[in-house]
Amino acid sequence: MHGLPKSVDIRDDTMREGLQIESKDIPVADKLRLLDALGETGLKVISIGSFASPKWTPQMACIDEIAEQFVPKPGVTYTAAVFNQQGFERADKYYPKIDVRTTEYMTHIEVGRIFAMRNYNRTPEQLLEQGDRTIQRAKQAGVESGGIVLGNPFGSNFEGDFTLERSLAVFEDVVNRWHEQGLTVKTCKIIDDMGACMPDQLMEMLSAISEKWPEITDFGLHLHNQRGVTNICYYEALKFGVTQFDTSLGGLGGCPYCGNGRSAGHVPTEDLVYMCEEMGIETGLDLDKLIAATAIAEEVVGHPLWGHVSKSGPRPRGKTLYPKGMPFVETLDEAAHFRKGPSVYAHQVKPWKQDSELNR
What we know:
Blueprint: E1 9-12, H1 14-18, H2 28-38, E2 45-51, H3 63-69, E3 77-82, H4 85-92, E4 106-110, H5 113-120, H6 124-141, E5 145-151, E6 155-156, E7 160-161, H7 164-180, E8 184-192, H8 199-212, E9 218-223, H9 230-240, E10 244-247, H10 269-278, H11 287-301, H12 309-312, H13 332-335, H14 337-340
Parallel strand pairs: 1-10, 2-3, 4-5, 5-8, 8-9, 9-10
Antiparallel strand pairs: 6-7
Helix pairs in contact: 2-11, 8-9, 10-11
């Protein structure tokens, strides 16, 4: 247990993982509007989407139009997901507007076999071979350390639970591959597409990794939220000292390969920012603008999202305290009076007596 960090790095993935599971028919103009709103929130790095094959990800078929048309915001680095050399070359045409040249030497391994094949079209052994090539590139580049992405170490919707011992054995194998090349591992990112992670399991894993490999000090989390406990996991991780978290506006997102589809969303960016700021942890993000961007995201995808603070607003204080005489507030639209104004509840009733102090 390390205590709460002073600041965190919250990485919003709305434009990529959020939109790639939504309708492929969302107009480019709407996506540009959403990207523009994200650029106003204080995010320092924004992925505009992925340069993926439209055969498998038709939602990203318009990525070149987005790359050509969006207007960068000052102080924001724009990037994109690329999965092969062809994708890199497509994205790199837009450099420096879009930067996919920054290299993080990370090797990725999946604990489970079935999801590795479903999501990456590779077996765990093939992922290890790919990781070995990454380690070689890192060595040739002259870097001294790299990182490991540990995929779905808590269990699989297709294979059942994974023990801590099994997942640590997989992780240790990859650490040893780095060490054999004279390189250290300083970064560990844990991915849970399955929604299997529980707070106690996460703490056990983080503690075990830190104790066995104390050189690993930089942890990141990408935990899906289909069973509603991920924000609790993030809170426990904050107390452990973790500083890097993946989120999306309103919890937008999902995974087509895990069996849960859009229900495998994320922790809403605005909810995590609210929690951190209330606990005195700096995020560098503007909560009001995140809430406004979430409202735009709901309009763009055409359905409500799963965030909380975007619907109720931040806790009111000082000049933002609610009027004592406000009438009933029942619907979500009425609850949005914190950003829409009192007109949304003007038609509602006030059931208290005429001489009530609430009418004064």
